[in-house]
């Protein structure tokens, strides 16, 4: 297919008189001027990100959240009503939604009880016709990194794209799979500004891959998928990148504190090890009742009881120090009202 050629593709930059895109040259209604279409190739952000991540700008795709990248990867590779993708539940729900929306079948390779890839995953994938596999590491909702060797074996044996979703990589003590892109032409690494960067409201997700694959994603994306407001704020955030390790350290401290407190509570059965900014916790008491009791105290967590392998589990995001205290106090109260038999 021929990609849409936007006004900003045919003329780059600014001229004194810009009458090519039917914009409003008088300015904008409202306090800020957003009358001009944004750079469709987001060159400024990609230049900064390339430096930060040690890749070349043509290895970077920017999406309206990672969710746009997930959808575009499915649409790029799959013919509706015919093809399939592979996922490893329990995992992030958007992979399945993107497949369903695009009439693409789902092959499920459930994780083991400790939420690692099963030993036969590489063999199953090697024999699979799936166009891509989503591997989420650290995984949501379980929090753990997937073992490096298992991912390497899949990269060596699977014919489709291997997408490693690193939304929580900033919290993990492991090198990013971005460092392995040169070795594996079918590897795609997804990251996001929504978690450690604290910019979920902006909607900015990133996919890193070979220049060839990035070229295809750019061809099928909506031309102006990253708004001018998002581009401006993302640039400001990148200029403040040194703040990121401070925030990360504070959240990791919060995670350690929360974990230590939760182990003292009789209603808590197990806290799964986490490389992310949340804890998956299995309760000895009814987890849905616990969810409701927290909710009635104004504390909202994520009920994951119906996810495969997550019976009795709630996912608790690490908050501010004060929020973490409130959560632990509320759970202690709830426990004292529902003593474990
Ligand atoms: C939160 C999250 C994302 C982020 O999605 P955005 O659309 O960038 O906000 C991606 N993948 C996983 C696994 C997540 O948990």
Automatic annotation (TrEMBL):
Cofactor names: pyridoxal 5'-phosphate
Pfam families listed in its UniProt record: Aminotran_1_2
GO molecular function: histidinol-phosphate transaminase activity; pyridoxal phosphate binding
Catalytic activity: L-histidinol phosphate + 2-oxoglutarate = 3-(imidazol-4-yl)-2-oxopropyl phosphate + L-glutamate
Signal peptide: none
Domain Aminotransferase class I/classII large: 33-331
Functional pathway: Lipid metabolism; Amino-acid biosynthesis; L-histidine biosynthesis; L-histidine from 5-phospho-alpha-D-ribose 1-diphosphate: step 7/9
GO biological process, one term: L-histidine biosynthetic process
Gene3D superfamilies hit by this protein: Aspartate Aminotransferase, domain 1 (3.90.1150.10), Type I PLP-dependent aspartate aminotransferase-like (Major domain) (3.40.640.10)
Source superkingdom: Bacteria
Cited InterPro entries: Aminotrans_II_pyridoxalP_BS (IPR001917), Aminotransferase_I/II_large (IPR004839), HisP_aminotrans (IPR005861), PyrdxlP-dep_Trfase (IPR015424), PyrdxlP-dep_Trfase_major (IPR015421), PyrdxlP-dep_Trfase_small (IPR015422)
Modified positions (N6-(pyridoxal phosphate)lysine) in chain numbering: 195
EC number: 2.6.1.9
Keywords: Amino-acid biosynthesis, Aminotransferase, Histidine biosynthesis, Pyridoxal phosphate, Transferase
Family annotation (HAMAP family): HisC_aminotrans_2
Family per similarity comment: Belongs to the class-II pyridoxal-phosphate-dependent aminotransferase family. Histidinol-phosphate aminotransferase subfamily.
PANTHER family: HISTIDINOL-PHOSPHATE AMINOTRANSFERASE, HISTIDINOL-PHOSPHATE AMINOTRANSFERASE-RELATED
Subunit structure: Homodimer.
Name listed for the protein in its UniProt record: Histidinol-phosphate aminotransferase
Organism (species): Hymenobacter cyanobacteriorum
